[in-house]
Amino acid sequence: MSRARREAAPLLEVRDSPLHGLGVFAARRIRKGTRVVEYLGERVSHAEADRRYEYKDAGDAHTFLFIVDARTVIDAGVGGNEARFVNHSCDPNCESVIEGRRVFIEAVRDIEPGEELTYDYQIQREADDPPDVDAIFACRCGSGRCRGSMLWPPRRTAARAPAPRR
């Protein structure tokens, strides 16, 4: 296949995922450092994002929201593209990059055709999270490095050294 034809071939395909619902898969080889796709959708305030999902079942962790900064959230459920289907992994092959208030999914290693694209969602914990928040945001990536949750690990309090004996 010529280079021009290869570049015209689709880079991604959305289909059923063994990780969760739909996923995004490489239709051809993707080299490390490639900006694979921009995360698109309606840009709204945090208050509007909260309002939109206020009555959503607390046990349903499925949303298409991406926090850009302190003022802006992208709701890919409105005007979003295939980037909204990139699933979480604790050992991802991509990462999210925010540049100029735009969000891109970028390959952190070479990705082979047919391989599912993933990035670490790094969902932040909140003071008012329910006690079962880790179960709500359970991770099933299956990697040897799996944290078991799409959330950042809880902050650990520093262990106190035992007092010296005298």
How would you describe what is shown here?
The chain is α+β, with helices and mostly antiparallel strands and 166 residues long. Helices cover 10% and strands 23% of the residues. The protein has helices spanning 3-8, 46-52, 133-136, and strands at residues 12-16, 22-26, 35-38, 42-44, 65-67, 73-75, 87-88, 94-99, 102-107, 118-119. The strands form four sheets. A three-stranded antiparallel sheet has the order 3-9-8, with no helix packed on it. A three-stranded antiparallel sheet has the order 4-6-5. It has a two-stranded antiparallel sheet with strand order 1-2. Strand 8 and strand 9 (102-107) form a beta hairpin. The longest helix is centred in the first third of the chain and has 7 residues, at 46-52. It is globular, with a radius of gyration of 19 Å.
